[in-house]
Amino acid sequence: MTAQTKIATAFDVRAVREDFAILSRSVYGKPLVYLDNAASAQKPRQVLDAMRDFATSEYANVHRGVHFLSATATERYEAARETVRKFLNAASKDEIVFTKGGTEAINLVAHSYALPRIQPDDEIVLTVMEHHSNIVPWHFLRERHGAVLRWVDVRDDGSLAVEAVDAAIGPKTKLVACTHISNVLGTITPLKEIAARAHAKGVPVLADGCQGAVHEVIDVRDLDVDFYALTAHKLYGPTGIGVLYGKKALLKAMRPFNGGGEMIHEVTRDAVTYADPPARFEAGTPPIIESVGLAAAIDYVSALDRTAAKAHEHDLLAYAREGVRQFNWLRVIGDAPGKSSILSFEAEGMHAHDLATILDREGVAVRAGHHCAQPLMERFGVASTTRASFGLYNTRAEVDVMIAALAKAREILT
Amino acid sequence: MDDSLRELYQEVILDHSRHPRHFGKLAGATNTAQGYNPLCGDRVTIYLIVGKDGRIADVKFEGKGCAISQASASLMTDLIVGRSVAEAEKLMDGFVNLVRGEKVEGLNEDDRETLNVMAGVSAFPMRVKCATLAWHTMKSALEGGETAKTE
Which of the residues A105, A357, B5, B72 has the least number of beta carbons within 10 Å of its own beta carbon? Predict the structure, then answer.
């Protein structure tokens, strides 16, 4: 940690780094500089310990047996749901559905909410900066049911105008699907205003919160979005579990997604009736150990001073943004005011994959490619970008390593 | 600098990628195919003229991509002119084995030496698909022009 970081924020990054054992490893003989947090974040020992301890001494299937361990595991699983409820400030824990990830959460809304309400030519409004996970489920509705996708453009700096979203919502719009934070640009969207405008026209809003839940303090009641999808693995939690928040009245009116155990009220040879939400949407054995890990991750993040954590991430972004200014061959894509700690750029005469390969050999892990956001790549006229995304545990010293590696890449490739 | 990086981005490769040979559209192409790498979004189009004698009379390529994919395409177009379809496919098999770090058989000394500039790719398993894209696309063009994918 540099002295500057100390001055810039009150955030104790050194203490945080000690919780993440992987950060002390090296790659190719160089210290690891992990700047691919928007793809997936590393896990603190608190998360790993919680999962191991639970599996070691309290594990069984949930909502099934009458035996001791099943009761214990069920308590932990439901306690995790309550932890998520508090984290999102949802009104009821029945509004928290565990899924296998953010992608499944969005597919659930597409299948169980949108599909039965879609007639040919009905519209889904979405922005050009959506991740493919918030595009492809809507393409399914277009391909199979004649839905029309109405795309909302961003400004050249990557920001999203609420008026542009409003203008796209018409009498045939059935849903607005909008990210909270762009995984490429770092843009934070005006979700609350979008929800207000959409609701004024009777249209519900689904927010993709896979990045948003990591960097922002979420209050779904204040945002007043109808659905909020998030994933655990970007939030310093395990893979294999995500969350769909849905307003109770909407969830209750939705048909099931997957069919199987646990989601039923009664099954006979001739008929089936379904359980109430959230069980209705949790067919089969859920990610039980992962739910304990997700709760531990939320506890971990919540125990930090989140304002200071955000200031720390913003400091890293600003420091990196300033650092790359010296490279006249580098173009940053996405400079929206107040954006989150994601820095995407294009380098003249250097392909993102070549750049990332050279950075990798310097120990610097960044993402190169289209970031599962091809419509956005097309919007900015690039095939791919290089992306550095900063998390709780990154430091200015690591940004310095990245900057030096970029200079080296330039030297090698041109 | 890391030796494997130096080998990967050696001057010959960078020269091919900056000044690709046989770049552009080819009028009168008898065989064409598009290649696409869904991982990175890179695209390449291969145009071939296969003569009545079954030999590749001319070749061109178009596309955007990383230094590895562009150099590989450029190198390939240099090599396959004048070859029979069977010879071109044999070259491809040898090349694919080479960049995967597997045993290379069936290449003559000259071809082996020319292709060897790309051998450094084998130290970068994540980049093998960049190197093979143009070759898979060429094969696909020879076989009738489906869209080739790296996967």
Answer: B5
Using the Cβ of A358 and the Cβ atoms of chain B, whether some distance falls under 8 Å is answered with yes
* Angstrom distance (rounded) from CA A386 to CA A394: 18
Instruction: Specify whether A210 is catalytic.
Output: no
CB contact under 8 A, A413 and B4: no
Same domain, A274 and A400: no
Query: Any chain A CB within 8 A of the CB of B85?
Result: no
pTM score above 0.80: yes
Contact B39, B101 (CB under 8 A): no
Q: How far is CA A155 from CA A152, A372, A376, in A?
A: 10, 20, 12
pLDDT value at residue B31: 95
Contacts of B67 in chain A (CB under 8 A): 350-351, 354, 413
Give residue A58's domain range.
Answer: 48-302
B128 and chain A: CB distance < 8 Å anywhere? no
pLDDT in tens, A122-172: 999 999 999 999 999 999 999 999 999 999 999 999 999 999 999 999 999
- Residues of A165-185 as b/e, b for ≥16 C-beta within 10 angstroms? bbebbeeebbbbbbbbbbbbb
Six-digit token string for B15: 């020269």
Active-site pick, A372, A382, A397, A413 = A372
Residue A159 CA to residue A182 CA, distance in Å, equals: 10
Residue B130 contacts A, CB cutoff 8 Å:
yes
Provide mean pLDDT across the span A200-206: 98
Q: Is there a domain that residue A40 lies in?
A: no
CATH code for position A343: 3.90.1150.10
CB proximity under 8 Å: A 39-78 to B: none
The predicted complex's ipTM stands at 0.86
**Residue A38: inside a domain:** no
- What digits encode the pLDDT tens for the residues A244-271? 999 999 999 999 999 999 899 999 999 9
Q: Residues of A with CB below 8 A from B42's CB?
A: 383-384
pLDDT higher than threshold 70 for residue A5: no
Per-residue pLDDT of B91-122, as tens digits, reads 999 999 999 999 998 899 999 999 999 999 99
Q: Does A404 touch chain B (CB under 8 A)?
A: no
From A248, A272, A302, give the residue that closes a domain.
A302
- β-partners of residue A126 are A151, A177
Q: Which of the listed residues A302, A332, A355 is the one where a domain comes to its end?
A: A302
